[in-house]
Write a structure and sequence with these properties.
3 strands; 20 helices; Annexin V, domain 1; three-stranded mixed β-sheet; GMP Synthetase, Chain A, domain 3; disordered C terminus
């Protein structure tokens, strides 16, 4: 029993020691990865700042991959901080996707020293640079103290054709100078205008006084004139009222000889009310002005393509009549769409004078009215097809799984064209490795790391295998350190890679490009 209890105690102690060492090693590995990524970004920035002064800003790219290890510090060795040697800036509080090491673990590592055990620098230069410039760029890296402090450091140099971004600084400077000159000129003009406005205001105030006096005098004269005019109108109206009595002379009928002796006498008739004039006869009314006959005016609002859609099945006679009521350019468009036989028949008839009854024109008008109604309000609506539906399925990052769900539901027999348009991210595994390599070398490494997060191992190996080993290690390192990445970020990175890869897969990319 005693022997059994001793063995149990030893087993528990060893298990506790093993768990402590395992947790310590995991935290050290995480801290080392953080240090490596931090130093790589800093060294890339330092190297690029020197190289861009020599070769130009758009003619150089750089990748740095380093390896760090903790080693025991001997009592005789001076404990020199790695940050103090490389001159790095203070470490930030926390980068996204990384965890900070605790103070307890940091105290346990005081007897260890972090050393840089390996470095690989990949220098990519523009192919248009001369050999002298390339050698100078190499010496900038080889002569750097951090590069020389690492044993077995490696430098790789590649030359590729790079697109040069046009320098618009001079144009912007000219624009700024022009704006300054314009502002100065405007200020000077405004000051001169201000002085002129003050003078004009003084003159205007004097003119206002004179104008006010003139307006008052004109008002008095106008009032006196209106008073005189009203008095004259009253006098004229009074005279007309007094002259409303009309006298009408009527001849007397034939009188007897006895009555004739009494003499000729006049008979007067007084009319004390105005005489109303009779309305004009119907023959005197003016005729209404006729409007021009335009039976096909409703067709002016439609396009030439829609007009041809209405006319393509019409007879030659119908096109001949329609040609006399359409603008010349629209008639020419219709004639250009006809086949040779109908164009020949229509041309012969239009080249000679013809007369059509209005009833025939109205019949053709009703025919085109029905076609116009069907064109404006069709019985059937046509959809955009597979391209529009593919864009709809991949339009929302919040519903990134909708496209995969649809492709799985409709089956392989009917989703061939739709699958090509959607291009799911997992279909990259079927892409040619050379095509994939040519695209991935121009894609951001951060997008690749986000896109491969939680993907199948076969797909991850396919994509990383199409890249340079150093770049693949760097991406794999970033993937292991990512935390709390939202699906929107992953979906956006995947679609950007698909958009870059789609033209290459379809063969739509220019070989020279």
């Amino acid at each position: 029993m005693i022997h059994f209890s001793l063995n149990s105690n030893q087993f528990l102690k060893r298990s506790i020691h093993f768990l402590v060492l395992l947790s310590f090693g995991f935290l050290c590995a995480e801290e080392t990865a953080y240090k490596e990524l931090e130093l790589e970004l800093d060294l890339e920035s330092r190297f690029l700042s020197r190289l861009e002064r020599i070769v130009g800003k758009d003619k150089v790219m750089l990748e740095v991959d380093i390896s760090l290890e903790y080693r025991d510090v001997k009592s005789s060795e001076p404990q020199l901080s790695l940050r103090r040697v490389t001159g790095l800036p203070p470490r930030p509080a926390k980068l996204p996707g990384f965890a900070r090491i605790t103070q307890e673990i940091s105290d346990k590592k005081k007897d260890k020293k972090l050393e840089m055990t390996g470095m690989m620098v990949k220098l990519i230069l523009d192919g248009s640079l001369s050999n002298t410039v390339v050698e100078t760029a190499k010496q900038v890296i080889l002569g750097h103290p951090v590069y020389n402090s690492v044993e077995g450091a490696e430098l790789r140099v590649e030359t590729v054709s790079m697109a040069v971004t046009p320098d618009i600084s001079k144009s912007l400077k000219d624009v700024a100078d022009g704006m300054n000159r314009s502002v100065n000129s405007q200020l000077l003009t405004d000051s001169l205008k201000l002085v002129q406005d003050e003078k004009e205001f003084t003159l205007a105030s004097q003119e206002v006084k004179i104008t006010g006096i003139a307006i008052v005098a004109f008002g008095l004269i106008l009032i006196i004139g209106i008073y005189i005019l009203l008095r004259g109108i009253d006098k004229i109206v009074g005279q007309q009222e007094r002259s409303n009595d009309l006298s009408v002379n009527l001849s007397s009928p034939a009188a007897t000889p006895a009555a004739a002796a009494e003499g000729d006498k006049e008979m007067s008739v007084s009319i004390n009310h105005p005489i109303e004039l009779l309305p004009p006869s119907e023959s005197e009314e003016k005729d209404e002005i006729a409007r021009p006959y335009s039976p096909f005016a409703f067709m002016r609002q439609i396009s030439n393509e829609a007009l041809w859609e209405m006319c393509k099945d019409s007879s030659a006679k119908t096109i001949e009549i329609l040609s006399n009521y359409l603008p010349p350019e629209r008639t020419a468009y219709i004639l250009n769409q006809l086949d040779d036989n109908r164009l020949k028949e229509v041309s012969k008839d239009l080249a000679k004078s013809q007369v059509w009854p209005k009833a025939t024109v109205e019949t053709i008008k009703q025919e085109f009215v029905e076609k116009y109604k069907n064109l404006i309000n069709p019985d059937e609506i046509t959809t955009g097809g597979v391209s529009d539906y593919a864009n709809l399925l991949t339009s929302s990052s919040q519903l990134s799984g909708l496209s995969d769900r649809v492709l799985d539901l409709i089956g392989d027999e009917t989703n061939g064209g739709l699958r090509k348009e959607v291009f799911p991210f997992r279909d990259i595994i079927e892409v040619n490795t050379d095509d994939l390599k040519s695209v991935l070398q121009n894609v951001d490494r951060g997008d690749i790391a986000y896109a491969l997060l939680e993907q199948d191992e076969d797909l991850v190996e396919k994509i990383l295998g199409a890249m340079e080993p150093s770049t693949a290690r760097s991406i794999n390192k970033r993937m292991n350190l990512l935390e709390n990445i939202t699906p929107d970020v992953v979906f956006g990175a995947q679609r950007r890679i698909i958009d870059a890869l789609r033209p290459v897969v379809r063969g739509e990319v220019d070989e020279n490009a």
